[in-house]
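Good morning,

Attaching, inline, the backbone tokens for the sequence recovery test we're adding to the shared suite. The designed sequence is right after.
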């Protein structure tokens, strides 16, 4: 039996800010944001989108009735969750109409959470081959207005269906991982905004990458030439490029050109969405699979996951025959192209608007949000979602 990714869904809100506009407003050379950081557009979540709705919308496009019968485990990975107690997975379970005979949990380890969820899902399917596991990686990245991290904000979710004999990509062993207790990026429970030691986080991202990559090669016996592409967690696209550059000279010219070309394809969605934290690596994988026509069945894709704090992991997958037929290329193209540009002032107003925390009732203007699933109201400290 092989186990892996059977379907991939993606959702990002309908609003964005252009990085050239943000650069002008912050009195920064636009080249710093578009080349130095490598971001074009930053998705902005209106109040009607939270991590639950983003994930539910991402899953909505991939789940059919057969999946509803088979899904018995929903794992919601997030670092911007809405409740310290109840898992966001339960809301999505209800919104998607999944069967009651299912486990629902939330997992957290910064941007590494979705990878932990996938590995947990793999173990579950190995024990229960008929099961399917819905893994959700959903986040709204907030560093604050006028901060160094602002240009690396974003919002969105990826939904992955994990099962046996997957139609998109099987997941291989070994998977190599490492943990160190460091303070490169964190968000205390009392803060709406992340704290970050920017330069240190960059260094640690690279140090973890080099460590797990070296160990992966020694455990697997594979080398750079065995990879058609490597996808990275992309807090901003230049970060992945920096990591790739540290190992490129392990391949000959043809290998280097292939990996560089495929990296370009793998960063396109992230460049236009921003950091979606735990879903970011899988958004990059989706970008590669949907935009690169030269990949073929049997190709090996490397995946580097990094979650500050910190955990790093390197693993790989093999593309399956006809994997392209199970993607939603046109839908994603339409979703990204139909978004509305905000002025920086409009983005700042949305950024500053918050939901009440004193139990008062608020009805949100859901007509302004084209998403199928929205947050409609808040009353008595309870969120009411609407699926339409
Ligand atoms: N044209 C082209 N490039 C320019 C430029 C211009 N006009 N001006 C500056 N640049 C380049 C710089 O040379 C630099 O390039 P290199 O990194 O290749 O040297 C790049 O733009 C960035 O410039 P700075 O280093 O001066 O930028 P900064 O001080 O504003 O900080 C940052 C950048 C540290 C990434 C900051 O945005 C930040 O803190 N971001 C959030 C943290 C983060 O994303 N960390 C990544 C690793 S942690 C992780 O992965 C987990 C996670 O999701 C958060």
């Amino acid at each position: 039996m092989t186990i892996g990714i059977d379907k991939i869904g993606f959702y990002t809100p309908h609003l964005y800010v252009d990085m050239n506009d943000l650069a002008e407003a912050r009195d920064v050379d636009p080249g710093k944001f578009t080349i130095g950081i490598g971001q074009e557009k930053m998705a902005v979540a209106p109040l009607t989108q939270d991590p639950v709705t983003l994930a539910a919308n991402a899953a909505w496009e991939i789940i059919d009735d057969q999946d509803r019968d088979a899904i018995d485990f929903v794992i919601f990975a997030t670092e911007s969750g809405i409740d310290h107690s109840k898992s966001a997975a339960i809301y999505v379970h209800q919104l998607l109409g999944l069967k009651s005979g299912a486990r629902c949990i939330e997992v957290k380890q910064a941007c590494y959470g979705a990878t932990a969820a996938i590995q947990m899902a793999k173990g579950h399917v190995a024990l229960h081959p008929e099961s399917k596991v819905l893994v959700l990686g959903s986040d709204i990245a907030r560093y604050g207005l006028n901060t160094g991290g602002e240009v690396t904000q974003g919002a969105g979710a990826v939904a992955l269906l994990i099962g046996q004999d997957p139609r998109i990509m099987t997941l291989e062993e070994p998977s190599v991982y490492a943990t160190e207790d460091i303070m490169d990026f964190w968000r205390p429970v009392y803060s709406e905004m992340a704290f970050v030691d920017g330069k240190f986080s960059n260094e640690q991202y690279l140090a973890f990458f080099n460590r797990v990559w070296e160990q992966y090669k020694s455990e697997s016996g594979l080398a750079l030439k065995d990879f058609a592409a490597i996808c990275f967690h992309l807090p901003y696209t230049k970060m992945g490029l920096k990591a790739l550059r540290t190992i490129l000279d392990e391949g000959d010219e043809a290998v280097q050109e292939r990996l560089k070309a495929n990296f370009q394809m793998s960063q396109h969605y992230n460049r236009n969405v921003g950091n979606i934290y735990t879903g970011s690596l899988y958004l990059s994988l989706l970008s590669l699979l949907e935009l690169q026509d030269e990949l073929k069945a049997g190709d090996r894709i490397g995946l580097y996951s990094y979650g500050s704090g910190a955990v790093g992991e390197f693993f790989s997958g093999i593309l399956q025959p006809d994997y392209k037929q199970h993607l939603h290329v046109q839908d994603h193209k339409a979703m990204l192209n139909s978004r509305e540009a905000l002025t920086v002032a409009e983005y700042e107003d949305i950024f500053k608007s918050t939901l009440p925390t004193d139990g008062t009732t608020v009805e949100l203007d859901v007509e302004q949000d084209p998403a199928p699933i929205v947050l409609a109201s808040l009353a008595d400290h309870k969120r009411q979602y609407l699926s339409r």
